[in-house]
Amino acid sequence: MARHEGVRSLYNGLVAGLQRQMCFASIRIGLYDNVKTFYQGILLGDDTATGAQLFLVRIMAGMTTGGAAVVFAQPTDVVKVRMQAQTTGGTRRYVGCADAYRKIAVQEGVKGLWKGVLPNVFRNAVVNVSEIVCYDIIKEAILTYRLMSDNVPCHFVSAVAAGFCTTVCASPIDVVKTRYMNSRPGQYSGAVDCAIKMFREGGSAAFYKGFVPNFSRFVSWNICMWLSYEQLKRLMTNFGHETATAHH
Prior knowledge:
75% helix, 0% strand
């Protein structure tokens, strides 16, 4: 892509991608702990939870926040996929994000901005569980067995492992989602039809097309996300303690 379309082509859809992450991450990550605590209170009450029960609570919390985030941020995801599919120097369907939102709404109706929302809810529920729950469990295991202290190396290893798990679980859904959301109107009757036709054309390998770049994307994203999250969390916790001390 860089050779044929220029380095700029690697950043197609960047603005829409930033819009998506701002809407998406604030819900799926920001609400995860609160939703987990909520489910734990409803399902377990004051009882001492077993490992299996806590695992179930984490999965439920991850699926809930992941699905809710998609419903809210789906238009940004549709625009991101469309913008990324444009070739630099070729015929461009949209000149920018605002133009893409407007044209999709006019040409396909408002529902066009939520195209593929149901498979995307499923996809992001899986991604959210893979990323957050795997990171949570792996980090907890590292600390429990005292392999590392709760610091940057521990967060880095946990993030890489979570990125690998996410790639394995989410790649098939990701490929179907991208193909379906970028399809012409009427090309597929739905996401299931898209998946069936893909399997007929390329077999199971078709669902792992682009595995290496997908792995690179998920791992790099998890490293950036979790290292930033942990440092910000520590900073805010220390700030809260200092504020509380100052008031006393």
